[in-house]
Amino acid sequence: MTLSSTALQNLRKHKYQSKDDSPLYNYILSPVWNKLVLLFPLWVAPNLITLTGTLVLFANFMIVTQLCPTLTEPLPTWACLSSAITMLFYQTMDNMDGKQARRTGTSSPLGQLFDHGCDSVVITMQAYISAAVGRFGIGSITLAQLFLTAMLPFWLATWEEYHTGVLHLGAINGPDEGIIIIACIFFLTAYTGSDLWVQRISSVFPNTSLPPFITSLQFNHVVAFACMFPILGTCVINFTTVFSYLRKHKQPILPAVQHVITVLLYTGCSAAWFYLSVGTYGLGSVWHTYPRMVQLCIGLGFGEMVSRLILAHMTLQDFNLAPRPLLLVLGAFFHALFSWYYQQALVEEQAFTFVFASLMVLSYSHFAYNTITTLCSFLGINVLTIP
């Protein structure tokens, strides 16, 4: 993403605005983090705090996915505990970076982009870890957890900020209550064992009068659906807020809708790739043989798109509706569609997926490196140290 001199001047003028209505955040979490941040020396850069939290969560992600490659294996107690602890650790570090920036007088647009850019990649790891702890398996529930419960609300919150200028978190939101609830579920799983989540309602409540389509559900399905509906309600609020803002300021709605279409295409084509691939190759699909690699690379692509949207907001530029990650996912979708329709692949699926993953990593790395070096040079700052 090339930044013109005008865009860079707009970046210098950018002021981050956020509002968190959560009582949990305002009366408990934030005061605790205000105390904890004092433990950091003043020479510790805020972005280093963000990166530390990200790397710790990534390490836990690698361990959990090694222990639970198909998302059906029961995790040992210590892995459930480490998942809960690292989830809370990331939440804490993610909130203390901004406090450290204000404490050291080093707040900058780069810090905002670095923070939210890490968040946009981490949500894929958090969703995957949740699927492993809950033993969702590789399938529709895990995809819904990733695309509908994690990616869509994150994109819409960023999209709302792009149009209104304010990142607004409601009285109950994912970054605050959501992570606390997930961590509590992980602690509960460590205590009870993960077999709880794969039991059907009928086996625990044999005399219930609930209809069969409900009693046949496993507890992990119930939890997944229970988490999904309030999150989708938040998405409705995002739409209402943006459309009301645009009408009030007499701005066109179509460009805003196009931004949403971009992420719907990205997640929709990713999901279609899964179903087409599994329909063609069954358990030999790359989604079953290399699930961690495929989903992590899709998460990287999503992270790049979110970061591009944030950067466009900070520099007052139009958002590119066809970013590189979307083009790569479209390519994967059409390759899978061809293979499914003709029952013959243009390129062997495993080789194609390795190329896809390599290009996605290169795309993200290129974007991150160019953006960070450009912003550091223009703002006269370092990314991981305080000058």
Radius of gyration: 21 Å
Overall residue-averaged pLDDT value: 95
Main sheet properties:
2 strands, parallel
Number of strands: 2
Tell me about this structure.
It is a single chain. The protein is mostly helical and 387 residues long. 74% of the residues lie in helices and 2% in strands. It has a two-stranded parallel ribbon. Helix 6 (140-164) runs parallel beside helix 10 (219-248) and helix 13 packs antiparallel against helix 14 (324-342). The model has no long low-confidence stretch (mean pLDDT 95).
Name a few traits of the molecule:
387 residues, mainly alpha, two-stranded parallel sheet
Topology:
Layout: H1 5-13, E1 18-20, H2 23-36, H3 46-67, H4 77-104, H5 109-133, H6 140-164, E2 167-169, H7 174-192, H8 201-204, H9 212-215, H10 219-248, H11 254-281, H12 286-289, H13 291-315, H14 324-342, H15 349-379
Parallel strand pairs: 1-2
Helix pairs in contact: 2-4, 3-4, 3-5, 4-5, 4-7, 5-6, 5-13, 6-10, 6-11, 6-13, 11-14, 13-14, 13-15, 14-15
